[in-house]
Structure formats: C-alpha cells, structure tokens
Automatic annotation (TrEMBL), chains A, B:
One Gene Ontology term from the biological process aspect of the record: response to antibiotic
DNA-binding interval(s): 52-71
Role description: TetR is the repressor of the tetracycline resistance element; its N-terminal region forms a helix-turn-helix structure and binds DNA. Binding of tetracycline to TetR reduces the repressor affinity for the tetracycline resistance gene (tetA) promoter operator sites.
Originating species: Mesorhizobium sanjuanii
SUPFAM superfamilies: Homeodomain-like, Tetracyclin repressor-like, C-terminal domain
Gene3D superfamilies xrefs: Tetracycline Repressor, domain 2 (1.10.357.10)
Domain of life of the organism encoding this protein: Bacteria
Keywords in alphabetical order: DNA-binding, Repressor, Transcription, Transcription regulation
Gene Ontology terms for molecular function: DNA-binding transcription factor activity; transcription cis-regulatory region binding
HTH tetR-type domain segment(s): 29-89
InterPro entries assigned: Homeodomain-like_sf, HTH-type_TetR-like_transc_reg, HTH_TetR, Repressor_TetR_C, Tet_transcr_reg_TetR, Tet_transcr_reg_TetR-rel_C_sf
Region (Disordered): 1-30
Name of the protein: TetR family transcriptional regulator
Entry keyword annotation includes Transcription regulation: yes
DNA sequence: CATCGTATGGTACATTGTACTAGTCAAGCG
DNA sequence: CGCTTGACTAGTACAATGTACCATACGATG
C-alpha cells in the first residue's frame, strides 16, 4: 500500500515510471500532467465551481478515486492548475534589452493577460503559495530592477509594490468581468447625493481596463524609478 | 406566502417592523443585522470555511431555514458581512485637513487594517460587488485627489491604481498570514540556482509588511502627485 | 511461486446549501 | 367574533460534493 500521509511530497512515485509497455489505444494512463491539463480545461469551461473531482475523473475516463493517487486533494489540483497557467517565455527579442522599463511592462502585462485568459486563476491566487512559475517571474523582476539601478534597500518594496498592483488590478478586472449585473446594481446605488464624484467621473463604467492598467503601471514605475 | 424570487430586493419585509410587543427575555428576534453580526463573529473565529448556515443558525438560536427569510442565500451573507466590516470614520482631526496625502494614506491604511482584522474579508473581496461602505471610501478618495489637483483625465486611473495597490497588498498579506508552512515550502524551493536574486534579498522572509505597504504607497503617490 | 510497490476504482459516508412544506402569531376586516 | 392575510419560524428531505476505506489488478523482483 502507498505510504499514508507522507510529510511533504505526495504519495505518488518519485522515481521515473517504468514504461508500462505503452498502451496501444484507449485512454492514456493517468498522470499529474494530464490531470492538471484537464482541470484547466474544465476550469476554463465551467469556472471555479464547475470543477468537481467527479467531473474531472469523467473527463479523464477514470474512476474518481484514482485521481487521489496522483494528487493529494482538490486544493492540490487548484495549486497545480494555477501555476501551470503562469509560465513566462520572456520578452520578445532575444538579446539583452536596453530598456528595463519595457521589459518589466511586458512581463507584467503578460502576467495579467495570462490570468485573465483563465479568469478563475485570479480568485485562486490570493490564497495559495508561490509555484515555480510565479517565482521565476519574481526572480526576473528582481534581476531587472536591480540591474536598472534600484537601490537594494528599496528592492523588496519595489517588487511587492508591482506585485500588489498587478494582483489587485487583475483580480478586480476578473471579478468585474464575471458580473455585469453586480456592476449594474452598484451603479444604481450611485444615483443620489452620496457618491456624486464617482458618479460624475463614471468610475465604474470606464471600461478601458487595459489602458488604465498600463497608465497606472507607468505612474507606479515613475515613483519607483531610481533618481 | 412571501413573494418567491423577487427581482432586486430580498423577500423580507421592506416596511418597518410593527413592534412585536418586544419580547421580555430569551433570544431577540432574527434580523438581518443580527445575522450579519453573528456571521462576522463566526468568520473571525473559524475562517471562511467555518461559516455554515447550520452553525450560524445554531449560534443565533434559530432554525436554519429561518435565516432564509432575511437573507437570499449564503452568498448574500458573505456580501453583507464584507461590507459591514469596511465602515470608515474619517481622518482623525475634524477640520478640513491641509495635507491631502496624509488623508489618503490614513484612509488606505485604515482600509487595509480593517481587512486584516478580519482576514477572511480579503479572500472575499475580489469576487463581490461594491457595498456602500466601499463606495463611500472610493468617493472620499476621489474627492480628495480631485481637490489635490489631479487632472480629471488621470483621476480614474489614479483611483484604480490606489485601489489595486491596496487590494493586492491586503490580499497578499492575508494569504501569507494564514500559511506559515506554505511560506516555508516556497522558501525551500528557492534554494538552488534558479532564484538566486530573490533568495539573496530574502524577499519572502521580509516580514515588515506594514512598513513595506507604507513605503510602496509613498512611491505610488509620488508617481500620481500632480506635477 | 510469493511478495511488494504502483496504480485503479467502487462503495459509503459525512457535510453542505437550500427547496419544499407546514406551522405560528398578530393585525385588519367583515 | 371568525376569517383572512402576511410576516416569520422551522422541520424534513434531497442532491451534490470531497474523500476515507477497501478490494483489486498487474508488473517486477525475490
């Protein structure tokens, strides 16, 4: 029997699989990768609540409990799905870029775009730990800022500021995306005397989210740029 | 019977209650307010998953289904609990402040503090609409920035930037708060060659969250300040 | 051949939100 | 006074869900 409740890793094999003669046709064997990929498909199609272990198993053509060999629990699936969606391939040109600001903007815009492509990921992020793809992005951010001349004492603050901004913007955008009726309800609350300013500025109706993200990011980078 | 599935409001009475002779002792009657207050207590004590309709009813000394007279569903409870926690009493001094920056910092720090006092609120925010307390804060922010001289064309971007920053910071902080083991796991992933920079800067171990929040906010305000 | 690790999956259970339904009580009206 | 109505409370029941427990199969190794 598999080791119950091991400490850190899951219970599945750590050695490489011994090639089970590769099945001729039919369903390929279960694997972490296949589970995660299918979970992402399901999440994209049905949203956060749409993902159930039963549904996942059905889509994989397997029994429900078989999943638990490869995965600790549903939370684990969420963790893996989230990180799998956040890979980053780097800025367009291969050579070292001269423009650190452009590099950062590119990476952060890609980050946001990746999450918005899978809107469930935004609701997931706040409560999970950092997967390797996220860490890679942070590492890149850190390197770039450091090379750009940001003082070491300001570095962590700068990184977290950018992180905060991107996360806040993405989460907000994703949640407003889902509920047009909530927007309408909120907008209706505005009419009256209490919220004149935001009503006049049409804060909630301005839907140039991409432009606003970019402009706000520029403001933030203005503040962060080494003087 | 009460009108099933009304459009906008819930099914509970909209007129004032006709004073049921006020019960001498025992449990006070159910009310939206009592339900929300108790829900907040439970959320504080047990976290997001700890709130169940059954638990809530038990704590209120009522039947489970009685709750549904005052509340549409569990989501509704979450909405109400969230907004109830975000009231803002304004900056310390009563007279008009000269220092718009201090006013904004005060409000935003209070916002963050309010949410961190109820850590479940951070996970709730991204996916819900804007309650009246949130709108009031946005209105205040808008007025202050406008009075400070931020151009109308930049106003919405400025507001959203600050919102994004605060939300990102708070959500991040709250989620890291919950899981020390996740932190440790992430930190362990760092050792190696891939993440040298963030390992060296001790990004994940720096726990002066309050200071970092304040400093990053200053950077952002530097960028936003009218030139 | 026996044993063991890898892997699959059926059954069963506790827990959840909430639909349905029946009830209580007070106010208003004939 | 009896009857109706509407505000409110609550028990029962159900469907959906995550997953513990158990039985099983199969290839490799002794």
């Amino acid at each position: 029997m598999a080791a119950k409740r091991s400490g850190a890793p899951s219970k599945r094999s750590l050695r490489t699989r011994p090639q089970p003669v590769l099945e001729p046709t039919g369903e390929p064997p279960l694997s972490r990768e296949r589970i995660v990929a299918t979970a992402v498909e399901l999440l994209d199609a049905q949203g956060l609540d749409g993902l159930t272990m039963r549904g996942l198993a059905e889509r994989l053509g397997s029994g429900v409990m078989s999943l638990y060999w490869h995965v600790d629990n549903k939370e684990d699936v969420f963790d893996l799905a989230l990180d799998s969606v956040l890979e980053y391939r780097g800025p367009p040109q291969m050579a070292e870029s001269q423009d650190w600001r452009a590099d950062i903007v590119h990476m952060l815009e890609d980050w946001r775009a990746s999450m918005l492509r899978h809107s469930w990921s935004a609701s997931l992020l706040p409560r999970r730990a950092l997967g390797s793809n996220i860490l890679s992005r942070l590492e890149l951010l850190s390197k770039t800022l450091s090379k750009a001349g940001v003082a070491d004492t300001d570095l962590n603050v700068a990184i977290w500021s950018l992180w905060n901004y991107v996360m806040g913007a993405t989460i907000t955008r994703a949640s407003f995306d889902l509920s047009d009726d909530d927007m309408a309800a909120a907008q209706q609350r505005l009419t009256g005397e209490r919220y004149t300013t935001i009503e006049r500025s049409r804060l909630l109706l301005d839907n140039d989210w991409d432009g606003a993200f970019r402009k706000g990011l520029d403001f933030l980078l203005d503040g962060l740029a080494p003087r």
